[in-house]
Write a structure and sequence with these properties.
Layout (H helix, E strand, L loop, with lengths): L18 H9 L5 H5 L5 E3 L15 E16 L1 E9 L4 E6 L4 H6 L5 E11 L2 E5 L2 E4 L11 E3 L8 H17 L10 H7 L4 H9 L7 H4 L9 H27 L9 H9 L7 H15 L5 E6 L5 H14 L3 E5 L3 H15 L6 E4 L5 H13 L3 E4 L13 E7 L6 H10 L8 E6 L5 H7 L4 E5 L10 E6 L3 H13 L3 E5 L7 H18 L5 E4 L5 H12 L5 E4 L12 E6 L7 H8 L10 E6 L5 H12 L3 H12 L1 H4 L19 H14 L3 H12 L3 H5 L1
Parallel strand pairs: 4-6, 9-14, 9-15, 10-12, 10-13, 11-12, 13-14, 16-21, 17-19, 17-20, 18-19, 20-21
Antiparallel strand pairs: 1-8, 2-3, 2-5, 3-4, 5-6, 5-7
Helix pairs in contact: 6-8, 8-23, 8-24, 10-11, 20-21
The structure holds adenosine-5'-diphosphate (ADP) and magnesium ion.
Amino acid sequence: MVKLPELADPVRSLRGVGPRMQEGLAKLAIEKITDLLFHLPMRYEDRSQKKAIGECHPGDRTLIEGVIESSSIVRHRRAMLLVVISDGSGLMTLRFFNFHAAQARSLSRGASLQAFGEVRAGARGLEMIHPSYQREHDKSEKDPFLTPVYPSTEGIGQASWMNLTTQAIKILQQSDKELPELLPQKLLQQLKLPSLKSALLLLHRPPLDSDLANLNRENESFQHPARDRLALEELLAHHLSMRRIQQLQQQRLAPSFAGDKQLKSQFLKQLPFQLTGAQQRVCGEIEADLKLQQPMMRLLQGDVGCGKTVVAAISALPVIAAGYQVAITAPTELLAEQHRDYFNATFRPLGFEIVWLSSRVTGKSREKALQEIVGGAAIVIGTHALMQKTVKFKQLGLVIIDEQHRFGVHQRLALREKGQALGKWPHQLIMTATPIPRTLAMTAYAGLQVSVIYELPPGRSPVTTVAIDQQRREQVIARIASACRQGRQAYWVCTLIEESELLEAQAAENTAQHLQVELPDLCVGLVHGRMKPKEKSQIMERFRQGEIQLLVATTVIEVGVDVPNASLMVIDNAERLGLSQLHQLRGRIGRGSEKSSCVLLYLSPLSANARVRLEVMRDTNDGFVIAEKDLQLRGPGEVLGTRQTGALQFRIAELSRDAALIHRIPTLADKLVADKQLSDALISRWLGNAERYIEA
Ligand code: ADP
Ligand code: MG
C-alpha cells in the first residue's frame, strides 16, 4: 500500500498538483492539505433529480437528459457552439462560448446527453449557458451526495476541486490525531453541534437527503449546524487572539499627559466655530486616556464631514505641550496634504514646528525632514512614508491615523513601534469615516476603545440624491451648467474603468475636455491621481477660491477634501462603485448651508446588486445604515479594505449572518481562556502565522 501524505504536508504531495496549480491554490491561501479541508463549498447542487425539459423554468438549476437534435457553430462576433437537445417534452439549447473542435465533434446529432446548469430564457426558447454535461456512454456512477461547488480562482475547475478534496478527505478519515478536536465535548453537546471531523465531512460531501436550502443558506435565519460549528470555532480563535493583544497592551507603559489649560484655551479661541456636543465629549474621552500610563488605543468613528480633524488637533495639544511628538498619517497624498495645511495654519501661530514627509519628498529635503523628526519636531504629518524604517522619532507620544480602513494592521503597528522608547509606547488614535457596523467592530476591533460622533456640525442640510441613466447625460450637463452660472460649484467624478490609475486619469481628461468645449463660459478644472502634488493643490486652491466652477476629478477626491461651497456632484458610472466609496464621495458636498444634490449617472442595464446600491444611496444619507448594507452586500474583508492585506479574513464565519454566534463568543472565551495550550492551538489553526500580530 502506498503511504498517504499527511494533512500537514504541502498540497503538491497530492496527485494532480503541479507547479501551476500550486500557485493557483496559494492565491487562495491553500498551502497545506489541511487548508483544503477548510476550503468549503460556496453552494451545493442536487444533480440526482432529473427534470423534464417541458417542466423547466428560467432560474431553475437542474439536470436534464435528451438526444441531440442539432449541433452547429455560429459566428457572431466570436464563435459559439449551439447544441439543441430534446427529451420529447421540449427543446433546450446548450450554448458554449469556449469549446474545442473535438468537443464540438463529440456533440453530434443523435447522441444522448445529460446536462446540468441554470435555465435561462433565450431568444429562441429555453437555454443553458456552459452547462456541465456528460454523454450517455461515458457516464460514470451517480454521486451519492449533493454536488459541492467550490469557490475558485482562474485555472482550477470544479473537477480539480473534487479530485483534491476527495484526496484530503481520505487522509482525514484515515488519521485520527492529525486534526484534533479542540472544542470541549461538553460544550458541543450543550450547543448541539457536531464534531470537527463530522462537520467537515458533511460540508464537503453532504448526503443526498441533506437540507439543500439550508446548506445553501437560502433561508436567512437558519444556519446549518455543521457550518455553525466551524464558524463558532473560527470566531472564538479570533476573539482569543484579540484578547492576547489586549493583555499585552495593558502590560505596556505609555507617557502620561496631564494637558495644558492655557494652550487649549488659546487653541479654542482661534477656532472659527464652537465645538459640537459630540466633539466635546469625544475630546474629553481622549484627554482622559492620555492621562493614563497605559497606551490609548482608541477608534474614533464619525461620518464624513462630522469634524474629526479638529478633534485630532485637540488631542495633539496635551502631547506637544509636554514636549512629546505627534505623528499624523493619511492614506493618500491629497488627504495628508490637507492635514498638513490645516495643522500648519493652526499650530504655527502657536509656535509649534510641523514637518512634512511623503514618498515624494526626496534627496536633500528628505534628509532635512528626517533630521527634524529625530530632532524632536512637534508635529509630523505624512503618508505611509512615515512608517518606513529610516524614519526615527525623538520621543513620539501620540500616533494619529486617519482613514484607518485603508491601512493594514501591520502598517498601524509599524508606526507604533517607532514610538517605543525607554520602555514606553505611544498612544494611538485611529479615525475612520467609514462607520464600522457594530458586529464588525466587536470582532475586528476588539481591544480598541471606541468613540463615536453621531452629530454633524450645525447648518448642514442633507444631500438629495437621484440616479439617472447615461442616456440623459446631456440634460444633466445642462442642469449643472445652469447651477454653476448662478454661482454654485460642482464636482464631476470619473470612476475607475479598470484597476488602472492611468485609464482613470485619461477618462477624467477626456471628460474635462468635453465639458469645457460644451460649456465655454464656465471654468472647468481637472484633478487626478497622476498629477504632481503641487499641480493638484493649485487646482484645489483655485476651486476653493471659486475660480473653478466645475471640477472634474477622479476618485482621488474621495476622502477628506473640504470645499464647503461645492454643493453639486455628478458621479459618472456610479454603478461601478461600492456603497462606502459612493458615500465617501457624496460626503464632499452638503458641507455648506446651500442645499446640495448628487446625481448618480449609471449605464444600464444594472446588475441586481448595483441597483440595490443606487437605491440605498437615494434613500439614505446615514453612514451607519449604508455601512450595514455594505457589509451585507460585500462581506467584512472588503468593507475594511483588508481583503488584500489579509488582516481580517474569515474563512467560514460571516459577520453579517453570524450575529447570534458572535454574541456568544465572549462568554465562551471566558471559559476557555485559562487553558493556554488550547488557545494556542485554536489561534494557530485559524490564524496561522498570525502570532506576529501578537508579538507586535
Ligand atoms: P471629517 O470628519 O470628514 O474629517 P472635517 O474635519 O474635514 O470632517 O470637517 C468638515 C468641515 O466641518 C470642516 O470644514 C470643518 O472646519 C467643519 N467643522 C468641524 N467642526 C465644526 C463645528 N463644530 N461647527 C462648524 N463647522 C465645523
Ligand atoms: Mg477627515
